[in-house]
Amino acid sequence: MLRHVVFDSLLHQKRQASLILAGYDLHLTDHALNNKAAFYRFRRKLNDTAFTAVIDTTGKILSFRREAYKQKLITHPPLPMASDSLFVLYSQANNEKSFTLECLDVQQRVRWKTPFASSDRPIYLVDFQSDAESIWIISADHEQEQTIWCLESRTGRVLSQARASDVDNKRFVESTLLLPDHSLVYAGRSLPAEARQRAISVKTGDLFLTRRLPNGRQLWSNTNANQSAPSAIVSPQDVEIRWEHLGIDPSGNYFLLGETFASTSAANNTAQIIAMHALVGYGYNTSSLTPVGFVQVKFDAKGTVLHTSVVPLPRTATFTELSYIPAQQLAYLAENRGFFRFRATSSDGNAVIMRNKKEFSVLHLDTQQMTPLYSGPYTETMDVWSGQGSGAVLYRAQPAKTAPPAPKWVSLP
């Protein structure tokens, strides 16, 4: 059964729609949102049948289909579309050398399809932003080369594309912000073009901030090597940074938040290696990551650094993988699995909502004080659903056969 629950702005349940789907072992593989409705696609694990449904915010089922669906059973990330009537879905080719964005209306009619292909190497979608006129995406290949694309929302027509890197620098976008004039501001790591692959995979490098128009024209781009190199922001030198959130404050200045982390990737001790080699014929490595603290960088409207601050926090849990993974790739895995502590921020970027094991807290970056955000009952499936300027929505997952719990709004102290 699919339950579609609608809440008002105070998180009071307004209505609920239930859709009974025949059969067992159903998996939600696609989920897309627009301003007024949600799209769902379920697959049966053991055959090629798919069920798709569109349900609006009044709980009305706008369309329902049962169809053959022969792609791999893969869960695709939801892409939020700033539209009242359109959805965008993402699908990856089986050989991973292309992906497609497909636009549907609420009756599930295809409005457009735009493929993105690479002739000889895998290509992936790594970021998506949209408004009523423009869709911005960032793709990356297996060597981490990134391309920034802008599409027309109504037609899917490619308006522009640009490489993130240039002749002097290899750049890796880690956070994006779509502005009301449809331009994109993006920030991330920058290393010299001659940097070796190991350094690219491990080091934070310098911080860059760029603004680009939908037609591809770059308004400005700053690489703040002197003000924002890791040596100028954090110490000791074995600490790296994962940039997590780019925002704009009420005065029109930008702020960028990141988490510092320490990472080690080394073989286990000799006794363990000998024991493992005797059992399975080979030794093994481990890679671990420990969050250290938070970093805030503030910029003016042209991307010049105004201020940086670092807040160290007690080191707690460690994220570990039983293989060698370079530091920045390990940080990407840890972030995708919800291991880093950042969850949301206030509208001015001075307060960070964070999850640390069983606690939800607010870290005030200007005073470096931490206050509890939530002290009620806790379960392992509880997390922050979304954050707004004055608080956050907490939710917890439930088994499929039980009624969905109401999310809880908590205000910033």
From TrEMBL:
Which InterPro entries does this chain map to? Answer: Quinoprotein_ADH-like_sf, WD40/YVTN_repeat-like_dom_sf
Highest taxon, organism lineage:
Bacteria
Q: What Gene3D superfamilies has UniProt attached to this entry?
A: YVTN repeat-like/Quinoprotein amine dehydrogenase
Q: What is this protein called?
A: Dipeptidylpeptidase IV N-terminal domain-containing protein
Organism of origin is: Hymenobacter glaciei
